[in-house]
Amino acid sequence: MLPQSLRPDYLGLKELLSSVRCLSICVLLFSAQGGLAYAQLLSEDLPANARGISVEDKIGEFIPLDCIFEDERGNKIGLGKYFNQGKTVVLTLNYSDCPGLCIAQLDNLVGTLKAMNAKGLGSSYEIVTVSIDPREDHIKAAGTKSKYLGMLQSRGGDEYWHFLTGKQSEITKLAQAVGFRYTYDRANQRYNHPAATFFISPKGRICRYLLSLGVEPQQFQLAVAEASDGILADSISDAIVQFCYLYDPDANRYSADARRMLAFAAGAFALLLLGTTAPFWFSRRSPKVGESSGVGDGQITEGLEGGFASDLGEPLQEVASGSDCGRESRADAAKQPTPTG
User: Fold this and answer.
1) What is the pTM assigned to this prediction?
2) CA 87/CA 94 separation, integer angstroms
3) I need a labelling partner for 135 at 20 to 30 A (CA). Which of 36, 152, 257, 294 fits?
4) How far apart are CA 110 and CA 104, in angstroms?
5) pLDDT digits (tens, 9 = 90+) for 95-108
């Protein structure tokens, strides 16, 4: 006879599953409340000069090609001039007097182009850099262009990398179309803005945007090729990067934000927990003996014939509820002689 401690407690399994359900619900509620609390803290704890600085996902939308700007030579130009030529347009929004972020972004863009030997510039894509400062004129833009072309040292740069300036209304229209959110810091007389590189199809459709200051050559070439074909990119990874990193106006750079990362981790944990515990929530019956132990009915019956029927007969009767396995177990148990002391 098996000791009582070794007998399988099938009713206890049911109680265990109920406990797991309750515990999962409690953890999910805690995670959800924590996520809401952190979301509220994110909006309240941001410095005043950092609020409103972001890149909204506008993938799939079209930019206004009727915007009028002025190129580095002082010529009035419609933005549509650079489109409908079968080439991708790489768009950046910067300004010449930026103390750091624009410099880092454009320096890294030059580094990417040099690593590619400016391959495809002019034939596959053109670059358009628009100033977000309406006070900037074409003379200053020409000086900025000269600086970066000198770093690039490519013959195609002068003709296919354009530096544009314009009125505030035109700048705002373009910035809103691509989801570029920035603010003006009157105290320090500078713009607080994100760093983003947009890849736009020949027809003016936003296909991809990258938030990192530097773009790997392979990533740049892939983005150009996909935008040329009008392929829309998945921006989930960029959205995660944007959520977990905060622009620091004082340092003029991006830095990891612990609270945002913790909020993201709490949300991810809640989703993971939901996925792993869902089978327990929706199970409405106890598992069969053959399924829970990984053995078939024949093996169980064979084990019962070996002399364990008296120990397992009653639990099997409760769990199986009249199943074939339960009936065979009771029949075999009746045939066995009653053990005596």
Assistant:
1) 0.60
2) 22
3) 152
4) 10
5) 999 998 999 999 99
